[in-house]
Every structure is written in structure tokens, then in C-alpha cells.
Amino acid sequence: MSFVTADAIGRPSARRLLLGYLELTKPRIVFLVILTGVPAMLMAGHGVPDPGRFLGTLGGIALAAASAACFNHYFDRDIDGLMRRTAGRPLPTGLLPAGHALVLGAALGVLSFVVLRGFGNTLAALLGLASIAYYALVYTVWLKRRTPENIVIGGGAGASAPLIAWAAITGHLGLPAVLLAGLVFLWTPPHFWSLALYRHADYAAAGIPMLPVTHGDEVTRRRILGYTLALVAASLLLLPLGLAGPVYGVPAALLGAAFINGAWRLRRDREMTRAVRLFRFSILYLFALFAALTADALARSRS
């Protein structure tokens, strides 16, 4: 049973409707996705590329991420209404018709292809479409409701921006892009499992087989620590490979130490506030890590 209904909202204003459409695109997630693509372009171009290609590619990545978000809202509208965290979204509340999310997602997807093809190349455009299909169909429709490994396998969808960005500049995929995508891939499980720990009841009520629901909190805490260790190791691997320097290395080491400390404390301390803190810190971690990588790429291109 949904926590919020259309009756509770009443007649929405034009501003509320516009905000509802914006919410369908998950702008905060889109911002993080864009950020993970920036250093890939700087590394691929050995500095800031042509402004048109740079901004156009980022715009295409944003459109692809927003398209995938709309499809996610559409396919998850039934279970969103069963969870307190998501019950206030535009579709379960009845603020917007479900079909509007589908149409908006399709329109943004087509536009992302056109933009990435125009400012980048065909490979970048196809990768953008693949990321939409992976998130909307492979993760949302197939994995999310069928396996506790949903987040692990589905993490590939959120890791596509470095691949798209690199392809837009070079016309092919390279090891640095794969490694940057790997960072987002490894970051995804500890990020979402921390959320799932303190939203355990929500996921159980909606029948979603998140790891804490199917295997319990203890297993989840252990796996969060394991993935965090792998993430930090991968983040530091960029240094000996010569893909990043001290401008990135120092913040990466400090951020990694803080992430490991948080995951270790979560493993040892059963207070649910630990999960909340780690979830929030994981967002800061990804933002700061890729911001440092961006600063490092800029510094190295000018040296």
C-alpha cells in the first residue's frame, strides 16, 4: 500500500509539476555521473579538449543518465509506493502519469544519442544507449527483483560515463577509462548496501532481495568491508601505473583510509547510525575522489 496518494497532494501547481519532471531525471545522480566522466576526457585529451566536444559530451552523458533515471522511475513505480524512502516520488503519488516518465525517458535517450554522435562519435553514442538499456532493463527490470547480487552486477550501469567520455575523445576504449569505470563499479556495492542496511524494512516490504534481506546484516557488513578494501586498492593502482600523480594520490589515500575506517567500524559496531554515516560518506568519497583526479589531470597536462 502506498504511503502517499494523489489525494494527499491535491491539485499541483505548475512549479510542483516541473519539479516532478525534474525529479524523474534524478539530478543529483546525474551530477555525480557527469563528474566521473570529466577526468576521463582530460586524460584522453591530455588536457581540456575542444570546448564544444567537452561540453557536448558531458551534456550527452547527462541526457543518457537522465533517460535511464526516467525509465527506472517507470519500472519501479509499483515498489516505490511500498517504501518510505521512495513513496513520495512523482509516479507512486500520482503527481505525474506513469506514461510521462516513459515518454520523457525515450525522448532524453534519443537526444543523448544525437548529442553524443554529434559532439563525439558513434561509439560514444552507442555506449550511451547501452548504459540506458543496462540500467533500465538489465538492472531495474531483471536483476533488482531477482538476485541479491543486483547491485554488484548492476553497478556496471553507473560506471559508463568514463567509457563514454574516453570514447568521445579517442574513438576507442582504453585501459585508463576501464580503470576509472572500475572505481565506480567497486564503489557501488558498499554505497548501496550501506543504504540497504538501514532501509532493511523498506526493501523487505517491497520484496526486493537486497543482501541484508536475503543474507542478513552480518554478511552484508563483511561484504561492504571487502568491497571497500578492493575499491581503495584499485583507486591507488592509478599511481604506479602512471595514470595519476600526487595531486590525486594524497587525497585518494586519505579518502581511502577514511572509507576503510568507516567500513571497519560498521563491521564491528552494530549501531545502525554507522550505516547511515557510511552511506553519506560514500557519496562524498566518490565526489572528492573524481574531483581530485580531475585536478590531477589538469595539473599533469600543464606540466
Please tell me about this protein's structure:
The chain is built from 15 helices and no strands. It is globular. It has a single domain (16-302), classed as UbiA prenyltransferase (Tetracycline Repressor, domain 2). It has 303 residues and is mainly alpha-helical. 78% of the residues lie in helices and 0% in strands. The protein starts with 5 loop residues before the first helix and ends with a helix. The protein has helices spanning 6-9, 14-24, 27-45, 51-75, 77-80, 98-119, 122-143, 150-158, 161-170, 175-198, 200-206, 211-215, 217-237, 246-268, 273-302. The model is unreliable at 1-9 (pLDDT under 50). Helix 3 runs parallel beside helix 15 and helix 7 (122-143) runs antiparallel to helix 9 (161-170). The longest helix is centred in the last third of the chain and has 30 residues, at 273-302.
CATH class reads Mainly Alpha
Q: CATH superfamily, please?
A: UbiA prenyltransferase
- In DSSP terms (H or I, runs of 4 or more residues), the helix count works out at 15
Report the sheet-strand fraction.
under 5%
Task: Quote the CATH topology.
Answer: Tetracycline Repressor, domain 2
Low-confidence stretches: 1-9
User: How much is the radius of gyration in Å?
Assistant: 19 Å
Question: What is the terminal-to-terminal distance?
Answer: 60 Å
Order of helices and strands: HHHHHHHHHHHHHHH
**Under the CATH scheme, which architecture would be assigned?**
Orthogonal Bundle
